Structures are given as C-alpha cells and as structure tokens.
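Task 17 of the worksheet. Students: predict the tertiary structure of the chain below and write it out as structure tokens. Keep your answer in the requested format; marks are given for formatting as well as content.
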Amino acid sequence: MKSTDMILDVTSATGLTQQIHIAATLHLPEGMDAPPEQLVFAVHGGGYTRGYWNPAFADPSYSFARWFTAQGKAVLAIDMLGMGDSSKPEPESDLSGAIIAAAHAEALRQVVAQWSGPVSVTGVGHSMGGMMIIAQAAAHPTLNRVAVLGWANEPMILGDTDVASLQADLIPSGYLATPRQPMRRLFYADDVPLALIEADEAHASATPVTMGRDALTPGIVHEAAASIAVPVLVVQSVIDTSPAPAKELAYFSASQSVELDLLDGAAHCQNFASTRADHWARLDDWINRMS
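Model answer:
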C-alpha cells in the first residue's frame, strides 16, 4: 500500500472568513501504473481521526485501508472538519453541519479532480461519520453509492450512557472529548484485546460541539436520507446504535437499492472486531455489485 498525506484548502467551500483545511491520506494499491477506478471515501466517527481506517498502533490486520487497497481500490480517509489534523475554527459556533459537509465534499472534489482516469466513489461513514456522509450525499450528490456504518436514524442506543446524559454535558461552543469509558460496551466486543482498546482510546480526538449536538438531535438527517437516490448499504453490528436495524432501510426512501448487513461477532467499532475481515469482504462485494 502506498499512502500519501495531504492538506487540502477548502476555505472557498465553507463561506468562513478564516482559512480552512482538511487533512487527508490517500491510500493506493502498491505497484499500479494508474489510479484505480474505484475510490472509497472514508469518514470516521466522533472522537476519532482518519487513523481509524489505518491504525498505526495496531498490526496490519486491523487496517481497513490496507485490506481494500489489496482488492485494487483506493481509499481516501479524511479528518473531519474540527477533528484530528483538520482545521478547528474559532469560534466553534461558526460551524454547522452544512458547512462541515461542504468542506468534506470539496476535499473529495479536489482529489478526484487529479484522477487520471474514470473513478467511481463509494462514500463510507462510520457512526457520526455516517450522519455526515448522509448529509454530504444529499447536499453534494457526487457519490456513486453510500455505506452507512453504525449510524442509526432510529433513536440511538449508546452503551452505558444515553442521549439525554450526553446532551446535558454539552457546552454552548467548543471542542469536547468523547466520553470513552461509558462507550466501551458499545464500541468493542468482549473478545477485543484490552491493550488494543486502551491504545485506541489514547489516540482519541476532540469533537466539535456542533457535530455532537447534531448527532444527539433525533431525526437530524432524516430529510437528507430520504433524498439520496444512489444505492445505500446500512451496516449494523449485533452490538450497535440501532434498536431496530431493519427499520433503518425505510429512511432511504428515494434510493434505487437499500440493503442491510448485520454483523455477527462485532460491536460498534467494526474495524476492531475479530470478524472485521468478513465485514470488509461483504462491503467490498456490495461495492462491486453496485458498480
């Protein structure tokens, strides 16, 4: 796998007066003469960074990016606006879900504009990133298909905490640490090694309050989900955010194809599950069938 880090200036897409950039890493298959025709645009969840898709602290078998590039696909992983190495605008209250989605769409546009041949893009969003990939697909319809991993349009289950408790902890503006301890039972299945959990938690990122508030607002992307016309894959683990995974499909009422994949042996953070390779293979199969 060949990986290239980049900083993408997306100021013009945000309407903000300060300079705004998105940090990204483009992972390409090793030894290819030209970029592949399939690109996976990967958006992490709250409290994470683009490292979720290629964790430096874990062995290579935990790398989503390495697995997909081995299948001949490219993976573009970004740090969401306000997280990781991307810009953290001040005041944070200047942000909105629409601005964040626009920044992400512009980052993708810039990378695709440099492609030397045709490219088909699959938007993959995990957890809060699922919310944002829905918002992006609706407002900036350039994605060819959308995979929503671990995001629930149904009222969410949140491990040892709940929506009301997290809402009570929100401040008016700023950047918040994700409360990881109450999330362990949701994030990781029992067979995930403790050392891996602790390393994952040590690499956590702060999250913009704007994004946290949106994620805790019931129905926040229902209208956006209903406008997506491209194929959609909904992925929920046996331990995850939706109390009724089968009901998730109805929210994507305009899509030509909506499928549900339920993962055994996995909790919310599927990339750390012992069944992660099966999850990736099923996602890859869906991409190939919908291409």
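Marker's comment: Residues 2-285 form a domain with the Rossmann fold fold (CATH 3.40.50.1820). The first strand starts at residue 2 and ends at 9.
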